[in-house]
């Protein structure tokens, strides 16, 4: 038998009942002795009745104990988790244990004397588990309360400090008090000094950011004049002009949305859009050392050298606003060439001469209109148009002089400028926001292979802001162009998501452009995007077939919803997945979504052996056994291998002769006996918190006998051999526990039984190597079944088998490859022939598969 592969985990053990000798227990013992003199049969009958009464009482006590634990911990009105929250949870463990102890003493007093010792052991185990659960809850609530207090205290301090900016003494006192609290909390938590320092800086930055937000709110109210219009100042000064220049250049951003520095197509960087070749000169004007790192990543530094360079240009051009702004954008050398009609930069080959507005040779407006570079011309127009509306007290320069500015994080400084710029862009395009939301929805539908009604170019154009800068307009147009490109792939995506791999590949290959195509680059981009989508979908299907189908296949969605509402419909869901997997060409064996398989695995791992058997039986009934059941178990085996193997045995149709004897009857094991023994043995090997697991025989002895028994039946499947070995050890432990033998001395007969149970037995077929027998099938039956399968699955299926001596190799549970020489017998399509000897389970007895 081939066991589903996976690493063997542990299952929650169940305490073994302690056998208590009641033969000499007081008056009952005397009575039993007296009855013994009258007749041994009567004595045994009384003892059996007493023991049965004791067992019934202990079983009732166990159930009552579990109910009491749930009541004390989880009762929604009186339980610890409902009534002891936060810091109030301190001491809850001791209080709960006192209630338990009082209840326990009362319950023990009601037990028959002969059962009290076992009852006390049982309740002690439940008490230990409850104590642990209570303690973990108590500590968690305490830590959470302390963390909430810490955060609340610092948040309140930050809010107060935000109000104090402008009052230096109050600000320092508040920050000092907060830092002292951080020191005390950090030391109590065992934080290193670096962590404490980081926390102080973090909360200081939050205070500074809060102060800025308050400033923005106040400025917004202050700046709004009658009718909601922003007041202007007429002719802007150099500070207003510089601020407008920064807003137009970068929208006040140092970084892109992904956190990388904002870099223009020409190479200008950050808030001030300073070119690297200009950086050292700008730093000199600012009186600071040139730092490429700070130029890229420090908005304050970038702004400082940019403002200094802008002021230098203002001085150079006698504060002429047009020339200053044009020089900042195109470079002073270019402006000088336009003024004088020269070509010192090598970029004015036409020797265009505009004239000097400072000398009255041309007006400022005339110079602006005559600028030959479209980008620079539009930039100057935008900056001059925006500068007058910027209040002098809200320029970038004035903001950078605020007391909180230097204490803000670089990211907050960058966003701060953006917040201020938002004050001058009061008209938000609600239509554009709505269309951008639709774009996201459309792209999500496209990814899922659904039909989409795309946004028209006319609808998008109607939402562009009238005052958009050329760069902004270009970015918005680029966004829509990318959207259109994605929408053009809609039929291809539908083929990829809703079709077979072959259909998806055909749709993608149809996009491959010819090198002579006029728009080859654009088509190549579409082709590459479609290829990536095909790869992503195929990988997702194989990685989690159940999850992918639930998301992308309508029939599977309906089946899964029905199963979620009614767990008895698990079989319908699994069968549907198997059908859809065949339709989509998915090769993975998985049928359940990964999350669902994990939940079932955890339920098995956390159950007792008895409950594991019940849960496995429920899964078997739900799937109807066979392929759906085995596929489900194979997924569960990844996290709960022992339980999954036991489930595999539950689906077997017949018993197994675990040991053949010459004189005594053969030892026969039913599938249900084997599965229960494996589950119990796994629990015994693991042990409990208070008791070590069962002592096993020497590993070397067991390994040698296992290898000798299985020979080469696991050829090419080391993982399967390892799993079978662990299952055999579980079965061995289960039998030895039943015998009460915990010596650790290897019982050869039991170990041989265990190996047979875990493998189903091995057989040297045709003298060409060992194979694993189907569980419960004898070698003689196997030979006959192979002959029959050969007639129906090989010759009867039209497969031409060349003459020769064939061997077999185990391939799956009751499945075999046909060996021919050094290779395998193949079908006409090149795939290997697989003989399937799977037997159907015939019936259920009392809900347990037989």
TrEMBL record:
Compositional bias ranges of the Polar residues kind: 7-21
Pfam families to which the protein is assigned, alphabetical: SLT
The organism's place on the tree of life at top rank: Bacteria
UniProt domain Transglycosylase SLT: residue ranges: 246-349
Positions of the UniProt region annotated as Disordered: 1-23
InterPro entries named among the record's database cross-references: Lysozyme-like_dom_sf (IPR023346), Transglycosylase_SLT_dom_1 (IPR008258)
Family membership: Belongs to the transglycosylase Slt family.
The protein, known as: Transglycosylase SLT domain-containing protein
Organism: Klebsiella variicola
């Amino acid at each position: 038998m081939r066991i589903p592969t996976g690493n063997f985990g542990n299952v929650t053990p169940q305490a073994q009942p302690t056998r208590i000798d009641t033969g000499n227990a007081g008056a009952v013992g005397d009575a039993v002795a007296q009855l013994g003199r009258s007749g041994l049969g009567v004595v045994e009958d009384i003892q059996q009745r007493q023991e049965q009464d004791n067992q019934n009482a202990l079983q009732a006590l166990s159930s009552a104990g579990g109910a009491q634990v749930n009541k004390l911990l989880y009762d929604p009105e009186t339980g610890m988790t409902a009534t002891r929250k936060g810091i109030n949870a301190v001491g809850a463990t001791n209080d709960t244990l006192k209630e338990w102890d009082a209840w326990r003493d009362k319950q023990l007093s009601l037990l028959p004397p002969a059962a009290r010792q076992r009852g006390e052991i049982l309740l002690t185990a439940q008490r230990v588990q409850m104590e642990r659960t209570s303690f973990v809850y108590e500590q968690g609530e305490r830590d959470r309360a302390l963390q909430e207090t810490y955060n609340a205290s610092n948040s309140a301090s930050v809010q107060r400090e935000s109000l104090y900016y402008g009052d230096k003494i109050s600000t320092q006192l508040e920050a000092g008090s907060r830092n002292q609290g951080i020191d005390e909390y950090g030391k109590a938590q065992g934080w290193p000094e670096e962590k404490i320092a980081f926390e102080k800086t973090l909360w200081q930055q939050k205070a500074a950011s809060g102060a800025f937000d308050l400033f923005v709110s106040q400025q917004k109210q202050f700046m709004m004049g009658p009718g909601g219009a922003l007041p202007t100042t007429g002719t802007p000064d150099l500070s207003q002009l510089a601020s407008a220049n920064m807003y137009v250049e970068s929208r006040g951003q140092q970084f892109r949305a992904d956190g990388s520095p904002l870099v223009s197509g020409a190479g200008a960087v950050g808030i001030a859009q300073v070119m690297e070749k200009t950086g050292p000169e700008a730093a000199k004007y600012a009186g600071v050392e040139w730092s490429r790192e700070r130029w890229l990543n420090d908005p304050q530094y970038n702004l400082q050298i940019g403002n200094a360079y802008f002021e230098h240009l203002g001085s150079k051009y006698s504060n002429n606003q047009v020339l200053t702004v044009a020089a900042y954008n195109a470079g002073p050398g270019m402006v000088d060439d336009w003024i004088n009609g020269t070509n010192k930069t090598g970029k004015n080959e036409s020797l265009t001469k505009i004239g000097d507005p400072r000398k009255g040779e041309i007006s400022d407006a005339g110079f602006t209109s005559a600028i030959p570079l479209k980008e620079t011309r539009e930039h100057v127009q935008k900056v001059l148009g925006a500068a007058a509306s910027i209040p002098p007290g809200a320029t970038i320069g004035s903001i950078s002089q605020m007391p909180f500015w230097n204490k803000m994080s670089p990211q907050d400084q960058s966003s701060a400028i953006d917040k201020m710029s938002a004050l001058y862009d009061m008209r938000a395009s609600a239509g554009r926001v709505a269309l951008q939301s639709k774009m996201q929805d459309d792209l999500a539908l496209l990814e899922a292979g659904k039909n989409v009604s795309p946004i028209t170019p006319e609808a998008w154009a109607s939402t562009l802001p009238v005052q958009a800068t050329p760069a902004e307009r270009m970015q918005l147009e680029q966004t829509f162009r990318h959207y259109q490109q994605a929408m053009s792939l809609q039929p291809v995506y539908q083929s990829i998501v809703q079709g077979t791999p072959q259909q998806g590949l055909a749709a993608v290959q149809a996009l491959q452009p010819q090198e002579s195509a006029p728009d080859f680059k654009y088509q190549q981009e579409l082709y590459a995007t479609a290829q990536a989508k095909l790869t992503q979908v195929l990988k997702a299907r194989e990685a989690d077939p159940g999850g992918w189908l639930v998301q992308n296949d309508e029939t599977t969605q309906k089946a899964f919803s029905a199963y979620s509402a009614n767990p008895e419909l698990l079989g319908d869901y699994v069968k549907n997945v198997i059908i859809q997997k065949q339709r989509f060409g998915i090769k993975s064996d998985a049928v359940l979504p990964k999350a669902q398989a994990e939940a079932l695995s955890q339920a098995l791992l956390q159950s007792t052996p008895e409950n594991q058997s019940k849960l496995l039986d429920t899964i078997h009934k739900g799937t109807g056994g066979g392929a759906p059941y085995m596929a489900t178990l194979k997924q569960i085996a990844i996290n709960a291998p022992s339980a999954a193997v036991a489930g595999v045995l539950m689906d077997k149709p017949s018993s197994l002769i675990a040991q053949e004897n010459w004189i005594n009857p053969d030892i026969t094991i039913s599938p249900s006996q084997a599965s229960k023994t494996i589950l119990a043995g796994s629990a015994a090997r693991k042990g409990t918190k208070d008791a070590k697991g069962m002592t096993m025989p020497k590993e070397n002895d067991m390994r040698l006998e296992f290898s000798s028994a299985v020979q080469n039946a696991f050829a090419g499947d080391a993982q399967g051999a390892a799993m079978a070995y662990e299952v055999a050890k579980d079965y061995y432990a289960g039998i030895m526990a039943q015998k009460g033998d915990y010596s650790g001395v290897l019982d050869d007969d039991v170990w041989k039984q265990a190996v047979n149970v875990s493998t189903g037995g091995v057989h040297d077929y045709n003298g060409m190597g060992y194979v694993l027998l189907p569980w419960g099938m004898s070698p003689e039956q196997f030979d006959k079944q192979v002959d029959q399968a050969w007639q129906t699955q090989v010759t009867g299926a039209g497969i031409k088998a060349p003459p020769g001596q064939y061997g077999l190799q185990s391939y799956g549970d009751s499945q075999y490859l046909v060996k021919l020489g050094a290779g395998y017998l193949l079908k006409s399509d090149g795939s290997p022939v697989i003989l399937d000897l799977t037997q159907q389970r015939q019936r259920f007895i009392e809900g347990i598969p037989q």
